[in-house]
Design brief:
Layout lengths: L19 H13 L33 H21 L3 H15 L26 H4 L5 H8 L21 H9 L11 H10 L56 E2 L7 E2 L1 H14 L3 E3 L17 E5 L8 H16 L1 H4 L1 E6 L2 E4 L5 E3 L18 E6 L1
Helix pairs in contact: 2-3, 2-5, 3-6, 3-7
Protein name: ARB-07466-like C-terminal domain-containing protein
Keywords: Membrane, Transmembrane, Transmembrane helix
InterPro entries: ARB_07466-like_C
Length: about 375
């Protein structure tokens, strides 16, 4: 665990605190004999791999196999068990796995840089608890401390970070760890997902992102499935595109809706439907609608379409991927098709702004509802 005082230090937690000569000696020992592994939660919390294949967090590290990988899987299961018991979403587990891989290669180490120890290299001197608490077997205390909350030590854990669900994964980890090497967490996401898959962990699991915390951040909801509990990093799989300039003359509704609603669309909207079908394949789509509950909507004006993704994307990875694909294509081609704005997965993109921001329902819809928050369909409005 690194804090602000470590910014001048150039060693990761798994590196020896000795000289380069000591590191060379350790490498020589590694070359002469294989390393003994301890059972995941047994023994005296000694290092289970005294020399790791490079500094944790560096891209390009080979995936582990054999006993070390099994150890990592067992610790991953334990981390997820704690997260599930607390009601945290799968995203919290993923961030914890990425952090553990960087800090200890997902092992319960009894050594580290300065006084750092344990799965997350938490520091007794920084208030995370005693060495005995942090390295306890199994390391429930350390995991609970990482997740944070009202019963955790003083340093803020994950649930204590306002807005962490919408942060990039590595940024959320860094907010907890305050590492001298903040960019390394993101490089371990792929391996963390591989370990989670091997452990049977559902990283798409919904939950309360602030479970165990006293109170919620301003504007946040503790219920599962809210936009604050999504799987997006500044839009997740969404691409912001860029602002789109241009003048799009007003058009009258003059084309029969090709989606079969019986209403009329503007030529621009009808042309978008044709392009979407040509580029995105079979689509479940509806455009014109009277929208008596919201007469100011673009639907009755023939300027909007809803593309269904088949399920609440908060509960379905295929639906999320399909929605992202539709939204990204729409944003990328907005300059040619005349798209005004797009709403998808609790976020809204506008051509003038060119970025995704949280969608609040516009005073008409509940942003936490599957339909109101646009988690089951992509809304596209035209100029």
């Amino acid at each position: 665990m690194f804090d602000e005082r470590d910014l001048g230090r150039g060693l990761m937690s798994v590196a020896s605190r000795g000289t380069l000569a000591k590191g060379a000696a350790a490498l020589a020992i590694l070359g002469l004999s294989s390393l003994l592994m301890l059972a995941p939660f047994g023994g005296a919390n000694k290092s289970q791999a005294a020399c790791l294949p490079g500094i944790p967090g560096q891209p390009g590290l080979p995936f582990q196999s054999g006993e070390l990988r099994q150890t990592q899987i067992e610790f991953a299961k334990l981390i997820d068990q704690v997260a599930v018991a607390r009601g945290l979403p799968g995203r919290a587990t993923l961030i914890a796995l990425m952090t553990g891989l960087v800090e200890s290669n997902l092992q319960n180490l009894d050594y580290g840089d300065a006084d750092s120890v344990g799965l997350f290299q938490q520091r007794p001197d920084a208030g995370w608890g005693s060495k005995e608490q942090i390295t306890a077997t199994p390391p429930i205390y350390a995991i609970e401390a990482f997740f944070g909350g009202k019963d955790a030590p003083d340093p803020p854990g994950l649930v204590d970070i306002n807005g962490w669900p919408s942060m990039a994964l590595g940024d959320a980890a860094q907010r907890v760890q305050v590492s001298a090497f903040p960019d390394r967490y993101a490089t371990r996401e792929r391996e963390a997902r591989q370990i989670a898959s091997a452990a049977g962990i559902d990283l798409e699991r919904r939950g309360n992102p602030y479970a165990g915390r006293d109170g919620l951040p301003p504007g946040a909801s503790g219920g599962d499935g809210t936009p604050d509990d999504d799987n997006c990093d500044s839009g997740g799989g969404l691409e912001s595109g860029q602002p789109v300039d241009g003048v799009w003359p007003e058009q009258a509704q003059s084309v029969t809706d090709p989606t079969g609603t019986g209403g009329l669309l503007t030529p621009r909207t009808a042309a978008w439907v044709g392009e979407a079908r040509k580029n995105l394949g079979t689509l479940s789509m509806s455009c014109w609608d009277a929208h008596v509950w919201n007469p100011t909507s673009d639907h009755p004006r023939g300027k909007a379409c809803d593309v269904m993704v088949g399920a609440d994307a908060r509960r379905s990875a295929p639906a999320r991927a399909r929605g992202d694909e539709i939204a990204n294509w729409t944003v990328k081609t907005a300059g040619q098709t005349g798209v005004h704005y797009v709403i998808w997965y609790g976020k809204i993109w506008s051509a003038r702004r060119g970025t995704w921001i949280p969608y609040n329902g516009g005073g008409v819809y509940s942003p936490t509802d599957a339909t109101g928050g646009h988690f089951d369909h992509v809304h596209v409005s035209m100029w």
